Amino acid sequence: MSLINSTAIPSGASAYEIEQSLRFNDDDSPYLTFQPSSASNRKTYTFSFWFKRATQVNESPIFTSNQGHEPGFNILFGGHLADDFELNIYDYTSGSANIHLRTTQKFRDSSAWYHIVVAVDTTQGTAANRAKIYVNGNQVTDFATETYPSLNLDTNMNNPAQTAGKTWSVGSSTERSQYADGYLSEFNCIDGTALTPSSFGETGDYGEWKPKEYSGSYGTNGFYLNFATAADMGDDKSGNTNDWTENNIAATDQMVDSPTNNFATWNPLSGKVGHLPTLSEGNLAVATQGVMASMSMALGKWYWEALATSSDADYAIGVADIADANSTVMSGQANPAQGFIYQANGNARKDGSVVASWATFTDGDIISFSYDQSNHQLKAYKNNSISGTLTLTAPRNEYIPCTITLGGSFTANFGQDSSFAGNKTAQGNQDGNDIGDFYYTPPTGFLALCTSNLPDVAVVPSEHFNTVTYSGTGSTQSITVGFQPDFTWFKSRSAARAHVLVDSVRGVTKELISNTTGAEQTSASDEDLTAFTSTGFTLGDVYNNSPNESGASIVAWNWKANGSGSSNTNGSINSTVSANADAGFSIVSYTGNGTAGATVGHGLTVAPEMIFEKKRSATDHWQVYNKDLHASTPEDWYLILNLSNAAMDYEGIWNDTAPTNSVFSLGSYGGGNQSSATYIAYCFHSVDGYSKVGSYTGNGSTDGTFIYTGFRPAFVLVKSIDSANGWWIIDNKRDTYNLADAALAPYSSAAEQGVYANKDLLSNGFKIRTANGQHNASGFSYMYLAFAETPFKYSNAR
Questions:
Q1: Containing structural domain, residue 645
Q2: Residues 190, 56 within the same domain
Q3: Are strands 585-591 and 575-580 parallel, antiparallel or unpaired?
């Protein structure tokens, strides 16, 4: 693969390119103001804008028609509480709410862009149609506060009382001295028309919501701010000349970070528990605590810069394997178990040890890095002179930029700001794809950390994995998945029923239960799952643990393999394999021979990182292999899917032999290799942008560990490795917004619960939001299996 991606628009990219945004740094008290010259439509109007959050505390006002005073119309993220991450729209007069919609959804994702549409039309007969909020193209229907305007209400938008010396504001609420913190782009206000998101965006090839150019009328007081002119960021491009005045905004606040090219920043969700990093300047400046970036350096050649903005001998910057990023780097240590840290005193630390003495650096020095993922070679520079070169340990996952500041501070430039938030004179150097804004010219072939430079993914997630929810009818019905599945896992959400697993290799009438040791069951041809179709599956009458029980609310997780399978002779035991090599998934059927050291071909081109194995012909436990069950010898260990037990060490399961890129090994234990017994195995390995098999360390806090996956998860399965805590699954269809807490337990028949699994599913991973030992006991290890909704290259903030 080429290390410099083509600059042509790839499949899934937006044909409408946005080249800039306006950064709001709340410490600067930035805002724009506009004084309407006349009143206009008070009943009907639309706002559309893209926003990338920075702050994780306080509120971010987006628009106020009276600078946050009453009477006024307001749009803001957050509220009066430090942990209030909702989106609010409200219209108040004399302390009384004419409109107040406060979402249940939490907006805590700082690594990608949200698209927000607010449409008001008080002439509508139905109250709920008079004020609407859309996020990334979808209408919000769940609200913590829900007050709709009365019919034909004149709201405080375009209020004639507010044209006499009172101003509209973007980015501030002066009444409460609150200012926006983040990036704003493509701000449209349509006066006199209530529109839907389709006027401003469309669905992309990967299911993402992407911008398109608005082409309609703006009305009298409407405006369009695209922030394209650095010297005049308030220039109205609508044709109305409704120009805005900048306040505490500099030309250097124009950024190339945009909804169509999202740049890496420091990720506030990755900080040490109890010691949130002090971030500013759109999450580019960091002080006091360690933090990691929002984007990893996978599959390519990457370059980034950091300006030292204070002096401390121990403060450091570098890269860490993402497996260590939370357990080591983010716990405040300067020695990631696998990675590199460059300290201000000149110490170059690799994998925790000082390996070289390089040039010292101090306040005002620019430290930059180039990293080649293909050979793991990292070069560090001070003021564009090379300090040293190291070959890093082959990563367990991939490397990601990080800081250990302790007492110092840095301002990063991942390619979006060569002025380092106004601390340097901007230089405007670009990478080999003509992207970015660097202080120094990147080495040949090395690229900015931004989504346009990420390689196209090999797998469109929705074509290989999908979750569907439906209601059982007890009679024949068809369910649409979006492709022909080969492995479907059913569970009743509303009742205590078994987990039913069916695949195309064994046949649709053959059922296994994940929460028991039971042998395979056979349903009649007209009961339960009756067929896999080209678009999903069909269901028949009720059988035993039916996926079609009348009145039941049911979820089905679906994977694509390759049909009914074919013979595989790679191992000492012949197998029948249905393999989807691109997506890292295969279904393997075989008959045991009772011989330790037997091997079975799995049909993939990469060694499986997770295997679920079950005896079909008799009762026995489900056995699970995972690459992270032990630091050095995971092949010696196994978990049991139908039990909550911690990982156990037993040679008889995998013969203490790791899987290869063609086979996995068996011991002599009858659960996986009894002579003449029949077995099924489901094999998975990570695929960039689509799936991830990994692990994390709990911190015992509701401000839990952040886990980087490189995609917006659609499905996450978690299990404690070293404690007797259960298996839990969450997904994006049962929880369509954050917080995600609808959990199902593969080892239990229990109905859906909302007790243990609190997580935020994010544009680039997930974050634990519970201190419960099921997911986040302090110092305990957890393994996970995750599948993507959207690769990070295209994902929206969630």
A1: 566-684
A2: yes
A3: antiparallel
Range from 65-69, 75-79, 350-354, 509-513 that averages highest in pLDDT: 509-513
- CA-based torsion, 430, 291, 251, 217: positive or negative: positive
Burial (Cβ within 10 Å: 0-12, 13-18, ≥19) of residue 383:
middle
Residue 20, CA distances (Å) to 186, 416, 437 in order: 9, 10, 12
pLDDT tens-digit map of 135-188: 999 999 999 999 999 999 999 999 876 555 568 999 998 766 889 999 999 999
CATH value at residue 79: 2.60.120.200
Same domain for 555 and 575? no
**Domain tally for the chain?**
5
- Which pair of structure tokens corresponds to residue 221? 């007081």
Q: Is-contact 672 612, C-beta < 8 A?
A: no
- Cβ atoms of 495 and 549 closer than 8 Å: yes
Dihedral sign for Cα atoms in the order 705, 710, 713, 716: negative
CA distance 443 to 441: 7
N- to C-terminal Cα separation, the chain: 31
Supply 756's token pair: 């243990």
The string of pLDDT tens digits covering residues 616-631 is 999 999 999 999 999 8
Last residue of a domain, one of 220, 254, 288: 254
Rounded to two decimals, the pTM is 0.95
In a domain, 722, yes or no: yes
Across the strands, what pairs with 275?
Answer: 272
In the structure encoding, which two tokens stand for residue 310, read together? 């204070």
Q: What is the CATH number of the domain that holds 353?
A: 2.60.120.920
Alpha carbon separation from 68 to 38, 93, 166, 188, 225 (Å, rounded): 20, 12, 11, 19, 20
Question: In this structure, what token pair is assigned to residue 665?
Answer: 């090994």
Residue 10, domain member (yes or no): no
Phi, psi (5° rounding) for residue 50? -110, 135
Task: Report residue 275 as tokens.
Answer: 């010691």
Q: 55 in a domain, yes or no?
A: yes
Residues 57 and 191 reside in one and the same domain = yes
8 A C-beta contact, residue 104 and residue 737: yes
**Residue bearing tokens 């957890």:** 782
Q: HSE-up of 68 (CA within 13 Å, CB side)?
A: 19
Beta-carbon contacts of residue 463 (< 8 Å; ≥ 6 apart): 482, 483, 560
96 CB contacts (<8 Å, ≥6 apart)? none
The DSSP letter of residue 262 is: P
What phi and psi, each to the nearest 5 degrees, are found at residue 484? -85, 110
| In a shared domain, residues 56 and 122 | yes
Name every residue whose Cβ is closer than 8 Å to that of residue 573 and which is 6 or more positions away in sequence.
590, 591, 592, 593, 598, 599, 600, 666
Whether 348 and 369 have beta carbons less than 8 Å apart is answered as: no
CA gap 186, 201 in Å, rounded? 11
Q: Which strands form 727-731's sheet, in the order they lie side by side?
A: 691-697, 781-791, 711-720, 727-731
Q: Using alpha carbons only, what angle is made at residue 170 by residues 60 and 145, rounded to the nearest 5 degrees?
A: 50
3-class secondary-structure state, position 161: helix
DSSP 672: H
Considering only CA atoms, which of 537, 487, 677 is closest in space to residue 595? 677
Written as six digits, the tokens of 787 are 């599948």
Note the pLDDT tens digit of each residue in 410-439: 999 999 999 999 999 999 999 999 999 999
Q: Are residues 442 and 474 in the same domain?
A: no
Are 491 and 499 a contacting pair, CB within 8 Å?
yes
Asked whether 338 and 320 are in contact (CB, 8 A), the reply is yes
Q: Is the same domain home to 127 and 45?
A: yes
Written as one letter, the residue type at 181 is: D
Structure tokens at 768: 């634990």
Beta strands 529-532; 510-513: pairing state: unpaired
| Total length of the chain | 798
Which residue in 180, 301, 300, 202 sits closest to 248, CA to CA? 180
Q: Structure tokens of 718?
A: 């978690």
Q: How many CB atoms lie within 10 A of CB 702?
A: 14
